[in-house]
Every structure is written in C-alpha cells, then in structure tokens.
Amino acid sequence: MDNGKIIETVGLTKRYGPQTAVDHLSFQVEDGEIFGFLGPNGAGKSTTLLMLLGLSRPTEGSARVCGLDPIRKAREVKRLVGYLPENVGFYGDMDAVQSLEYVAGLSGISTANLGDKIERLLDLVGLKAEARKKVGAYSRGMRQRLGVAEVLIKDPKVLFLDEPTLGLDPDGALRLIELIHSLNRDHNITVVLSSHNLYQVQKISHRVGIMIKGKMVAEGSMEKLAQDKFGVGDKEYSLEEIYMKYFQEV
Fold first, then answer.
1. For the chain, is the Cβ count within 10 Å smaller at the N or the C terminus?
2. 250, pLDDT greater than 70
3. Is the Cβ–Cβ distance between 143 and 150 less than 8 Å?
4. In which domain, by residue range, is 221 found?
C-alpha cells in the first residue's frame, strides 16, 4: 500500500442475496485531505463506510484504513477512526460533559486530564457555554456538534461523516461545515464526507468521488472531473453540474 493513502479499496464488493449494494469499488483517499463522497440514496455509500469501519464484511475485494484491514484489525481501526452516523444517539438526561465522560469510558480513555480535554473539545465545537445543559434540550445542530466532539475524544486520524448536516438550518449547517474544515486544516484530520449537499461538499473538499448504483463512476478534483466531462474551456462548472452530467449518463 502507498504510504500516502490513508484509505484504499480494491474491488470492494457487498452483496445481499441477489442484490449488489457495492460493486467492485476501487478508490483511494489521501492522508490529510477532505474527500467528498457523493451519490443518490441507495448508491452504496453507507454500506461502503460500514465496510471501511469493519462493521460489515465484504463479499469480495479488500480495504485498508490507516494501513490496516478493517475486518481482521477491527479494534485497531476503531481506535484510529471516528464515525458520525446520520442520526446520532444520545442520553437526553445527560449534559454535554457527562456525555463525553461516558464515551471516554466506553473507549477506554484515561481519566487523567480528561476534564481539560473535554473542556477543550466543547470549546472547539462551540458548546462550551452549553456544557451543563441537558442534551435533550439541544437543537439538532448542537447535537451534531456534540457528536463531533464525541468522535474527537479518542484523537482519530480519520473521520467518517455520514450526512452530518442533514436536517440542519442554514446557519447550523454552515457552522458544522466550518468546523469540519477547521479540523482538517488545523488538526490534519483526514475526512470522508458523505452528503447530498453538493454546495457544501464543493466548498471544502479537495477531491470527490461519485457513486451510482454501487459503482464509483468518477473520482478526482473538481477540475479533473469537469475536464473529463466538459473538456477544456473558460467556464467553471459547479459540482452540481458535474454530478448531474455523470448521473444522467449512467
């Protein structure tokens, strides 16, 4: 495996009976980049993330995350990877500090200086002022940011974010996207961002992959994908225009 690739799949495939959810998927994510993972519902994005996390065994093919096989080395991969699912679950009667202490305990994180670490994380995600507010009273945007703090508690090298801004109002979505960008820029965390919001993905991603019907139909920078579909020219194309061009041709 290339040392510059923090994620790499070769022929990764997942079948459920006669249905193929992920079809011989081969792609790479560079260490230190934000990779936008695009595709319609049912394209296989979430199934791919579950295989990369070691939570689902592939039917065929292989994957490496931080140089490790996520099935054979599932525990080691989980220590290095943070995962924020589409719907984050919390205990509503806990406050933010208690929630993070609980997650730290489940993750086997030392209690030494844990209070200071939690305070820094809540400040980072913009929840320091609401640290002792019950999570049940949080808005969806606040819960999503707390979810980010929870996955950061173990100092991951990689973040998998599955539709992190779904259901957020524009202000909440913008704050979360800016937070994701800062985690990559200031803390060198590699991010795989699965989202339907093409504008948000375009705003912060270094490269994107477009997945349709279980296949990765395109992978690369905005400039590369535009050139592949529209040729060289003076016009700059939006990610939505590029995405729809690929989608219509499949």
1. C
2. no
3. no
4. 5-87+155-249
